[in-house]
Specification:
The chain is mostly helical and about 170 residues long. It is built from 8 helices and no strands.
């Protein structure tokens, strides 16, 4: 029991953010749960060696790396999103319908990005990591983070502009 002290509280507090992050990375509700669970299982296995202040960073790193490994193993397989399932889950928890719609919209926009772009956007803007931390976490250079983020943000802006134009032209 000595190594377990505090893990239950950490897992309960970290679960929502890990699950949401995983969903933003893969756009699949069931896979997101699997990724988040794997991150917590692997964090638990090393709990005695992880400093408390770094536990979330460790779990996040496991989550991102596991998703990268999964993608490498299944390269070329298209994932099907579980947007409706996630939205229903959010509404069931009592989230505001406008907030759920915003999340759904964000997930759809992120779905238009490449896997690499999505990882960088999620780490930089959802986890609020610096360029250097994002680069270290993904094992790439800061320049790669900058250029990937720049391309991703252009795609996101173009997606938003296209949606606005579509709304304006509707009768």
């Amino acid at each position: 029991m000595g190594g377990d002290v505090g893990f239950d509280e950490f897992a309960a507090a970290a679960w929502p953010r890990l699950r949401r992050s995983a969903y933003l990375l893969c756009s699949d509700d069931h896979l997101a749960e699997d990724l988040a669970q794997t991150a917590l299982v692997r964090t638990y296995a090393r709990w005695g060696r992880i400093r408390r202040g770094d536990a979330l960073a460790y779990a996040r790193r496991v989550l991102v790396n596991h998703n990268i490994d999964r993608f490498r193993r299944r390269h070329g397989v298209t994932e099907v999103g579980g947007d409706a399932l996630l939205a229903a889950d959010d509404l069931q928890r009592g989230d505001d319908p406008d907030t759920v719609a915003d999340r759904d919209h964000l997930v759809r926009l992120l779905g238009d990005l490449s896997v690499k772009e999505r990882r960088v956007v999620v780490l930089r803007h959802y986890f609020d990591l610096s360029e250097a931390d994002t680069a270290a976490e993904l094992g790439v250079s800061r320049g790669t983070v900058k250029s990937t983020l720049s391309r991703a943000l252009v795609k996101l802006r173009l997606g938003l502009d296209a949606e606005r134009d579509d709304l304006r032209t509707r009768p």
